[in-house]
Amino acid sequence: MLEQVSARVWVTTSPTWLTTSSVVVADDGACLLVDPALTPADLVSLQGELTGRGWHVAAAFSTHPHWDHVLWSEALPDVPRWATPGAAVASTDEELAAQAARDLPGHRWDVVGGTTPLPPDTTELPWTGLRAAVVATPGHAPGHASLHLPGEGVLVAGDMLSDVEVPLLDDDDDAVDAYRRSLQRLADVVASCDVVVPGHGRVADGAEASRRIDADHRYLDDLTAGVDPLDARLGEPRVRAEHVAQAARLGAERR
Ligand SMILES: [Zn+2]
C-alpha cells in the first residue's frame, strides 16, 4: 500500500478523490504522518503497515482545516498532531464533523479530536526526525501550509499542485491573491525538489510540479477574467461543480 517516493518518504493514496497520506520516516523508525486519510479502515491498515515495518508514529501534521486533512483513528497512538495557528481545529468543531459525516460517514469525531496549534511563526516542526520546514501557503483554506523536507528534496503540498483538482479557494476576499503568492512561494521551493506530493492526485517530479504551477496560474487568470477555463481537471464532475460555485461567488463579488 505504501509507495516509497524518496529515501525517507512514503505515500499511500486512497481511491476516493485520490487522497494522499504521507509518512516521513526517521532513521530510528519514528514516523511523522502528514494528513493521514481517508476512511477509518484506511487509517487502521496504515497503522498496521507501519507496525509491520517496525516503525512507530511519533507526530503528525495537518496541512489545513478541511475534514479530510485532520483525521485520526483509535488505531493510531496519542502523539502531537500539529497545525499552524490558523489551521488548528478544536475537538468540538461540530461543523467539520457534520461535513465529514455528510461526505464520508464512519469517522468517530470524538476519536478524531482536534489538532494542536504550533507557536506563531514556527518555521520547522519540533520533532527530532528529519528537518521539516513549514511553508505558509494560504488561499485554499485558513492557515494552509505545505511541508518542505529539504534533506529529501520533497515537498508535501497540501491541497495545492494537484493534477486532479484546480485551485479551490477559501471564502476570504483576498483568496485569489493569496493563492497566487502561495504558488510563487512554492515555485521557489519546487526548484530544489525532486518529488512533490499533492493532497489529492499523483506524485509529481519537479518538472511536472512546475507545469502544475503554470496551469494553476492560468486557471486563476481565467477565473478572475470570468472566462471558462480550458482545463482538463474540470472534466471531473465534482471539480467542475466546485469551479462553477467559486466562479459564481467571484462574479457576485465583482458586481
Ligand atoms: Zn482542502
What is the CATH homologous superfamily assignment? Ribonuclease Z/Hydroxyacylglutathione hydrolase-like
SSE pattern, N- to C-terminal: EEEEHEEHHEEEEHEHH
Strand order of the largest sheet: 1-2-3-4-5-6-7
- Strand composition percent: 15-25%
Look at the helices and sheets and give the structural class: alpha/beta
**CATH C-level:** Alpha Beta
Rg on CA atoms, Å: 17 Å
Helix content: 25-40%
Largest beta-sheet details: 7 strands, mixed
Going by CATH, the architecture would be 4-Layer Sandwich
Hetero groups in this structure are: zinc ion
Low-pLDDT windows of residues: none
- DSSP summary: helix tally: 6
Number of domains: 1
Strand element count: 11
Identify the overall geometry: globular
- Fold-level CATH name: Metallo-beta-lactamase, Chain A
Brief sketch in words of this structure:
It comes from Oceanitalea stevensii. This is MBL fold metallo-hydrolase. With 255 residues, the chain is of the alpha/beta class.
